[in-house]
């Protein structure tokens, strides 16, 4: 699988207020990387830009055509009247289009994905009736169906219990073992130290992007915190010369 993502001097903003500044680097094919940093550091914005869902102000992002994104659970409307199987089958959307017919094999694949995340008996259940943990399992089932070489996860273990987190983490390691490129925004630094070999520490500017132990050294974490304390939320558009 060719899952390299290259950032070339990338700057991102919201309404011309800078969110991520001049970041360059590569998520190597097959790497497993955590993105960490203070609240408002630009982590979600960066992930969405890599997925092609947020415009790039300056610089360039090079990425494979097929990328799967797990958005933050809080960003999703769970009141939509569709079943678990329908949501899992949405993973075929890129290949079939919104109104394309999904072959029986595609349906079987979605059923198998539900089984793999522990929702085997819940195909027909409306998504609105799921617990937070079951809903996150369902979104992982959709990722399984998407079968993309790059998988982006935004706070995948938020609001789920320890058992669900452990099950979902096993899937993350399975994807890594299959050679996919996996990038996850996380806040639990102990989990990152234990499970993620590479880390990008972001505080709008990149603070460190390397092996996890080195990236999370006390000096880097202090620098990120000091940078966050100095943020001006109303800063104007990025001016590198300033
Ligand atoms: N839709 C939006 N409109 C305007 N500003 C936004 C929007 N989304 C994010 N921002 C701002 O962009 C900056 C980066 O936000 P982002 O959500 O990317 O940070 P984050 O590191 O993911 O934060 P957290 O850890 O709190 O989820 C913040 O200052 C935030 O207020």
Automatic annotation (TrEMBL):
One BP term from GO: zinc ion transport
CDD domains attached to this UniProt entry: ABC_Metallic_Cations
Any Pfam family the entry gives: ABC_tran
A molecular function (GO) term: ATP binding
InterPro entries: AAA+_ATPase (IPR003593), ABC_transporter-like_ATP-bd (IPR003439), ABC_transporter-like_CS (IPR017871), Metal_Ion_Import_ABC (IPR050153), P-loop_NTPase (IPR027417)
Record's keyword terms, sorted: ATP-binding, Ion transport, Nucleotide-binding, Transport, Zinc, Zinc transport
SMART domains: AAA (SM00382)
Domain ABC transporter, first and last residues per copy: 5-229
Presence of keyword Ion transport: yes
Cross-referenced PROSITE patterns: ABC_TRANSPORTER_1, ABC_TRANSPORTER_2
UniProt similarity note: Belongs to the ABC transporter superfamily.
Name listed for the protein in its UniProt record: ABC transporter ATP-binding protein
């Amino acid at each position: 699988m060719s899952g390299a993502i290259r950032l070339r001097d990338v700057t991102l903003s919201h309404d011309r207020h800078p969110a991520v500044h001049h970041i360059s680097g590569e998520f190597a094919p097959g790497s497993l990387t955590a993105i960490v940093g203070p609240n408002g550091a630009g982590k979600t914005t960066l992930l969405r830009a890599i997925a092609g869902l947020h415009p790039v102000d300056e610089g360039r992002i090079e990425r494979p055509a097929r990328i799967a994104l797990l958005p933050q659970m809080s960003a999703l409307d769970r009141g939509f009247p569709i079943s678990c199987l329908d949501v899992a089958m949405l993973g075929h959307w890129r290949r079939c289009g919104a109104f394309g017919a999904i072959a029986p094999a595609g349906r079987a694949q979605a059923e198998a994905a539900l089984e793999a995340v522990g929702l085997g008996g819940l195909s027909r259940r409306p998504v609105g009736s799921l617990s937070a943990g079951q809903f996150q399992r369902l979104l992982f089932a959709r990722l399984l169906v998407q079968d993309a070489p790059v998988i982006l996860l935004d706070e995948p273990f938020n609001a789920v219990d320890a058992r669900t987190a452990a099950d979902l983490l096993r899937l993350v390691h399975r994807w890594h073992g299959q050679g996919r490129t996996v990038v996850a925004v996380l806040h639990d630094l102990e989990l990152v130290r234990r499970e993620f070999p590479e880390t990008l520490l972001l505080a709008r500017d990149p603070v460190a992007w390397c092996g996890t132990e080195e990236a999370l050294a006390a000096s880097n974490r202090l620098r990120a915190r000091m940078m966050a304390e100095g943020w001006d939320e109303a800063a104007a558009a990025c001016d590198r010369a300033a």
